[in-house]
């Protein structure tokens, strides 16, 4: 059986892995659509060294209306909430020091019904982004307002070229892009498409 991340350090956590949300170089992560919490729903993200970089849990049932993006030590980075009367809108709230930074959402996201699995992100804290998913495939691209690819997720393969399953993704994030924002967008994409 292939390991999700073949590095023997995969079970160790490092606070330095998420202390910086930006990198000067392109970075690759492994996204495993399984929670580390027993009977929890969410996903776990490993950095290229096999250390836990981020985790997502909703502590509720699958496809819930709220989820939390945390760093490797459990500090909340974003809370992701579905609006009750928002016609499919989700909102992301940035946290700092275990408190919501602002009462107003940093970004909002919804499925674009005209374009299938596309999602449009509009926000006040960041630029506008577009997430392009591919139906029945475990892959997506996040583009900025100029159309540049900021991050791309594809189905991960083992070193022997075997697909690891629909719930294991290889996420490549370009240089100078906020990793926590990308993970928040990937998480919301999964929630909107009932993958979390």
Task: Please supply descriptive tags for the structure shown above.
196 residues; mainly beta; 13 strands; 12-stranded antiparallel beta barrel
Structure write-up:
The chain is built from 1 helix and 13 strands. The protein is mainly beta and 196 residues long. The longest helix has 14 residues, at 179-192.
Set down the secondary structure blueprint.
Layout: E1 27-32, E2 42-46, E3 52-57, E4 66-71, E5 76-82, E6 90-96, E7 99-100, E8 107-111, E9 119-123, E10 129-133, E11 140-143, E12 149-155, E13 168-173, H1 179-192
Antiparallel strand pairs: 1-2, 1-13, 2-3, 3-4, 4-5, 5-6, 6-7, 6-8, 8-9, 9-10, 10-11, 11-12, 12-13
């Amino acid at each position: 059986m292939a390991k999700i991340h073949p590095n023997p350090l995969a079970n160790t956590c490092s606070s330095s892995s998420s202390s910086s949300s930006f990198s000067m170089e392109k970075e690759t992560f492994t996204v495993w659509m399984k929670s580390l919490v027993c009977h929890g729903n969410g996903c776990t993200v490993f950095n290229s060294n096999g250390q836990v970089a981020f985790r997502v849990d909703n502590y509720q049932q699958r496809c819930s209306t709220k989820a939390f993006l945390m760093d490797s030590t459990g500090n909340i980075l974003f809370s992701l909430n579905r609006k009750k009367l928002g016609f499919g809108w989700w909102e992301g709230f940035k946290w700092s020091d275990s408190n919501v930074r602002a009462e107003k959402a940093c970004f909002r996201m919804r499925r674009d019904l005209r374009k299938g699995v596309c999602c449009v992100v509009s926000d006040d804290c960041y630029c506008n982004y577009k997430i392009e998913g591919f139906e029945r495939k475990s892959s997506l691209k996040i583009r900025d307002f100029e159309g540049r690819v900021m991050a791309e997720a594809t189905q991960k393969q083992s070193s022997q070229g075997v697909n690891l399953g629909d719930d294991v993704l290889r996420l490549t994030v370009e240089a100078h892009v906020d990793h926590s924002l990308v993970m928040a967008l990937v998480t919301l994409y999964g929630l909107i498409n009932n993958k979390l």
